[in-house]
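Office hours follow-up: a student asked to see two folded examples consecutively, so here they are.
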Amino acid sequence: MSLLKVENISYSVILKDKTDKQFNILKNVSFEVESCEVLGICGESGGGKSTLAKVIAGLIKPDNGKIILNSKLHNRTSSPIQILFQNHGEVLNPLRKVSSLIDEALIINRIHKSYIQVEREKILSSVGFPIELCDRRGYELSGGEQQRAALARLLAVNPVLLILDEPFSAQDVESQLNLVKLFKKLNNEFKITMICISHDLKILNAIAHRIIILRNGEIVETGITKEVFNKPQKDYTKFLLSAESLNLTYDEIQTQSKK
């Protein structure tokens, strides 16, 4: 069943220079997200991925188009869509205790005060955050601990859709693998629908059921992840896959990127 429909979304900004020209970041983007799936969105930097995430999350308003969330699947929560930013500071206040942040979110989700501690520990455990660190403040945590605490804060409001904006960026290989396992666990065990935005095709191949290839604000190709990766139909997708495995020279990359 479709959880989310993105219909003809466009978004632009006015360039503050001598020309004041309009720059189109998203151009009539349409797709659906099925309940309980992980949808990957990939493309080069500047292609509109993070802007699209913010539009879906309701942080910015599109110029045109609609974001339609299936009301039958989200009436159990007041905050149906949550987004985990690459910068955890967007979610995690460095001066507040982790326990306080989680408890606040649980209260928003109308959890009775007598169950707060149990629910807090359950959520922190589900994301692999050490319970003994829950009274530490954000600035006292490592980068990985901050990310998991921020994720726990988002999960505490019981979202039906979680958007992950470049969650693997600036992570070493071991940390990336641990995050892949964590997100797959949340998807499989807790049935959380996810949109995972990443420029790393190998990671999306491991985690996403379907994938969207975005270029210059437009969908170039979409389909089941394994099928797109094994038999890409578009030159740009082939370019991304080849560049990922470092099979292209600089001149070949320049030629492909103009197609």
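And the second, which I mentioned at the end of office hours:
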Amino acid sequence: MESPQSSLSGKVVLVTGAAKRIGRAIALRLAREGARVAIHYGRSETEARRTAEECGGAELFRANLESVPEIARMFEELESRMGRLDGLVNNAARFTRFDPLDITEKDWDFIHSVNLKAVFFCCQNGARLMRKTGGGRIVNISSLGGLRPWAGHAHYCASKAGVIMLTRALSKAFAPTITVNSVAPGVIPFEDIDERGKAMIQATPVGRGGTPAEVADAVVYFLLSSGFITGQTLAVDGGLSQR
């Protein structure tokens, strides 16, 4: 995947946290593009199996992303079962809300262990596999919260801002054969959206929330893009980051 690709057909792409929500939409879109999708999940086995079936029988990989040894094992298993890795989408993430004065070490680690630490070690292990076959594409899902500060989510914002800077640093470290880019979704409403989320949608210039499919569009763009596009963050937020 060193040069622009006209198709993802036959490319092996791992999506973390692919059982539900945005990760599921990304996996389904990649399957429609012809990719050989590898679906990671943590605890949502029923949903992961359903997504795998909808992807035409995608391979399933379970791992606790809080554990670096489990991350390493997952990539070893992926190489054994699928032979190579062409693309990695680091989608898995956690989200909580606390007054910063009330955040404990446990609260901080709960977010950062998956949102930032796991992203790095997935990138590291993924890049090692990609280099064996000439290169690849990494797409990290960050957040509007990594671009704009939210008072009640200081720990989350720090983790997602970290993902954006990690993306930029690794784009230099892994060049020229592996690109590393980031997609920063704005408000992508699901059934559990709260009043704050609804207010953010009202403030969004295009007048609506986004869809998981629109995030998937941006992921596909980076997976197919030229090797000359790396270290970039694309906000899929209806213009909200410009307010």
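Two things to take away from it. Helices lie at 21-32, 45-54, 68-82, 105-132, 154-173, 195-203, 212-224. The radius of gyration is 17 Å.
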